[in-house]
Specification:
By secondary structure, the chain is α/β, with parallel strands linked by helices. It folds into two domains: 2-81, Uridine Diphospho-n-acetylenolpyruvylglucosamine Reductase, domain 2; 89-135, 2-Layer Sandwich (Uridine Diphospho-n-acetylenolpyruvylglucosamine Reductase, domain 3), CATH 3.30.465. It has four helices and six strands. It has a four-stranded mixed sheet. Strand 5 and strand 6 form a beta hairpin.
Length: 140
């Protein structure tokens, strides 16, 4: 594991080791992750995923950490967090382009301010766009 983490650092990808997962989820529980990796661009994500797949290292992709229960035993693989560097979005007329880490509530509020409809359901949902897609947010 040390070898791959050094490889990521050589590519200027932020890496922290044995960090508590309590700080990365809204429930505030969980043991330590072997490593938390914070990519800066799409190429970083591709590099991390390909490198881990090649070495059969488990990867968990994490956004805001809403509705996630981490084990007290932690996670022995790599947490790929998309929270900090992935909250950009643009609104151009009626076209909304958003990264996975943008808050659902923020996106709902900003689209409503531009008289765009369809995101009203997300106003009270804690979490990110990426998490909402994965968890099927708003579906009944």
């Amino acid at each position: 594991m040390t070898e791959i983490l050094d490889f990521f650092r050589e590519h200027n990808i932020s890496v922290s080791e044995f960090e508590s997962l309590k700080e990365h989820c809204t429930f505030g529980i969980g043991g330590a992750a072997r490593a938390i990796v914070k990519p800066h661009c799409e190429e970083d994500i591709a590099l991390v995923l390909a490198s881990c797949r090649q070495r059969e290292i488990p990867v968990f992709i994490l956004g805001n950490g809403s509705n996630i229960l981490f084990s007290d035993e932690g996670f022995s693989g790599i947490i790929l967090t998309l929270k900090d560097n992935w909250s950009d979005f643009t609104i151009d007329g009626c076209l909304v382009t958003a990264k996975s880490g943008v808050s659902l509530a923020t996106l709902a509020r900003k689209t409503a301010m531009r008289s765009l409809t369809g995101m009203e359901f997300a106003t009270g949902i804690p979490g990110t766009l990426g998490g909402g897609v994965i968890m099927n947010a708003g579906a009944y």
